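Lab notebook, design round three. We kept the backbone fixed and only want residue identities now. Task for the bench partner: fill in a sequence for the structure below.
Input structure tokens:
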């Protein structure tokens, strides 16, 4: 049987692929056909039903011309699109093969491409990082089209639009930008379309790779992109007028733009009574203050402002610190670094043992450090309050920003005491006011003040008082 030009071209391009297969057969006893595919990407049952069996059943009319035979075969293959590439288009053929297509080559450099790819991905499961007591139990998966279906199940309108991008010269990752026409600002859509179009990179393996490209180029510890694995949360943001970025291979979808107060809002808030949801939001704001200021405040008071501490408490602190060789700042650094090490160890360890190691390790090390006289008992309490407060925020990335800020305020406290913490607070406020995400102030609706938006930021009013909830 002759070896077709396209088949030869493709064979050289993917010769080093162990799963590359070529099947040759004769249609109607004398018409040669070659079928090329990667067996790890195609559905073998589909290959049998939609390609091999139809080809083996073909019988030509004896008077058929070559062009008529090509069209006859195409009809048997359910109208498969022809390959319209010139002889030098090996890259297009290789891309089609790598996307799960089966290429059927005919004589005279004719051919067809059939999409019989088999998607291998994780099924729909419960959210891992955004659990709620009440609410939907579905989470996004690594397959971007499955994620699209989860969004469409909730937003059944033709105004829901998805724009596709192929990013990464090596990975060729499919990235989708989702929005609702008439809800999202056209200027905002154009801005993020332009940012996605000019991404120049070799690989996009996760949504975080895209996140760094679409953020404004400002040095800040505060995140300006919200990531979620919950379809209900993303759908609510789309209805609000936000834009979502979905990357193939990532179960986390990105939401832009976002503001400071949206990192304190949880999906749980919309499945609980308004009063409870409002109290929980204030509790999260209090946890942010505790996480950022508690270690620095303890250092400033014990080192420089002992007169501000009640006498009975001051006596107890002095007794506890007797024999401790390190100043309060070094104590705090030791304990916080050890806690960060335990946190990382708990994440990296298998899930069965990770939680036990982090909890038992913290208790054992804290007790041992106090008994050995390395740190005071009060410092263990301070670090414990800080650590617990860090876990309260619903967003993991915002929790990382809190940890950076707490170390910064500790340095200010040891150098300039309460005055340093006041200056740090003022600088942080100025920085937050100066931040913008696609033209929207980061502290909206507090600065600039928009009292009408308080109903779903600092508060959560009942549904009948909200036209469009702002998550």
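Proposed sequence:
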């Amino acid at each position: 049987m002759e070896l077709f030009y396209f088949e030869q071209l493709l064979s050289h391009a993917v010769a080093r692929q162990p799963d590359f297969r070529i099947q040759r057969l004769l249609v109607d006893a004398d018409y040669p056909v070659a079928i090329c595919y990667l067996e790890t990407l195609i559905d073998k049952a589909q290959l049998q039903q939609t390609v091999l069996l139809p080809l083996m059943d073909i019988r030509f009319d004896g008077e058929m011309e070559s062009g008529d035979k090509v069209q006859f075969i195409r009809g048997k293959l359910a109208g498969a699109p022809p390959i319209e590439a010139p002889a030098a288009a090996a890259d297009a053929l290789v891309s089609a093969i790598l996307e799960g297509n089966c290429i059927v080559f005919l004589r005279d450099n004719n051919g067809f491409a059939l999409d019989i790819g088999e998607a291998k991905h994780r099924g729909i499961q419960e959210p891992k990082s955004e659990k709620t007591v009440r609410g939907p139990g579905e989470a996004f998966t690594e397959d971007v089209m499955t994620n699209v279906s989860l969004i469409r199940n909730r937003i059944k309108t033709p105004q829901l639009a998805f724009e596709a991008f192929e990013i990464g010269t090596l990975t060729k990752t499919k990235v989708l930008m989702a929005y609702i026409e008439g809800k999202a600002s056209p200027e905002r859509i154009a801005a993020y379309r332009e940012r996605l179009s000019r991404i120049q990179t070799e690989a996009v393996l996760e949504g975080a790779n895209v996140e760094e490209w679409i953020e404004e180029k400002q040095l800040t510890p505060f995140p300006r992109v919200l990531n979620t694995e919950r379809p209900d949360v993303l759908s609510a943001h789309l209805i609000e007028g936000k834009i979502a970025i979905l990357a193939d291979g990532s179960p986390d979808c990105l939401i832009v733009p976002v503001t400071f107060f949206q990192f304190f809002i949880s999906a749980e808030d919309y499945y609980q009574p308004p009063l409870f949801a409002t109290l929980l939001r204030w509790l999260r704001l209090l946890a942010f203050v505790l996480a950022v200021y508690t270690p620095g405040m303890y250092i400033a008071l014990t080192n420089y402002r002992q007169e501000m501490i009640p006498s009975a408490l001051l006596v107890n602190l002095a007794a506890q610190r007797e024999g401790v060789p390190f100043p309060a700042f070094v104590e705090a650094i030791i304990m916080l670094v050890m806690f960060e090490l335990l946190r990382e160890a708990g994440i990296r360890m298998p899930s069965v043992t990770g939680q036990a190691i982090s909890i038992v390790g913290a208790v054992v090390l804290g007790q041992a450090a106090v008994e050995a006289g390395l740190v005071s008992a009060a410092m263990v309490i301070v670090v414990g309050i800080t650590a617990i407060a860090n876990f309260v925020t619903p967003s993991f990335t915002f929790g990382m920003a809190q940890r950076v800020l707490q170390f910064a305020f500790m340095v200010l406290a040891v150098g300039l005491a309460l005055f340093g913490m006041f200056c740090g607070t003022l600088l942080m406020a100025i920085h937050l006011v100066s931040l913008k995400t696609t033209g929207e102030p980061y502290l909206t609706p507090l600065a600039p003040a928009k009292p009408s938006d308080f109903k779903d930021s600092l508060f959560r009013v009942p549904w009948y008082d909200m036209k469009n909830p702002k998550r």
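Keep this in mind before ordering anything: The mean pLDDT is 84.
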